[in-house]
């Protein structure tokens, strides 16, 4: 009987992952290229992982960055994903502080 209140509490609180704070990334487009970046971030942050989803589709493209690319003033590295003109995209990515281990998550929505 003591287990029932605990089970109800867990069901009502939801998943902890749903409460990840997202910050907004900047997007600039030039000559058909998309640059997604974080303008105000510390110099020790590197890109960690990216998720790209074309609006209206269930399938997602995900990729982990094997090379440690500095995130400060740098476009999200190319991941062999082809953005198609006149489509809306949702992009989310994480960056990791190599010194402290702090992780931040960013999101952007744009039409190419």
Which short descriptors sum up this protein?
112 residues, mainly beta, Immunoglobulin-like, 5-stranded mixed sheet, two-stranded antiparallel sheet, 1 helix, 7 strands, 10% helix, 41% strand
Q: Would you mind describing this structure in some detail?
A:
With 112 residues, this protein is mainly beta. The chain has a single domain, classed as Sandwich (Immunoglobulin-like). The chain is built from one helix and seven strands, in the order H-E-E-E-E-E-E-E. It has one helix spanning 3-13, and strands at residues 22-24, 26-30, 33-37, 45-54, 61-64, 88-97, 103-111. A hairpin with a 5-residue loop joins strand 6 (88-97) and strand 7 (103-111). The longest helix is centred in the N-terminal third of the chain and has 11 residues, at 3-13. The termini are far apart.
What's the helix and strand layout?
Blueprint: H1 3-13, E1 22-24, E2 26-30, E3 33-37, E4 45-54, E5 61-64, E6 88-97, E7 103-111
Parallel strand pairs: 1-7
Antiparallel strand pairs: 2-3, 4-5, 4-6, 6-7
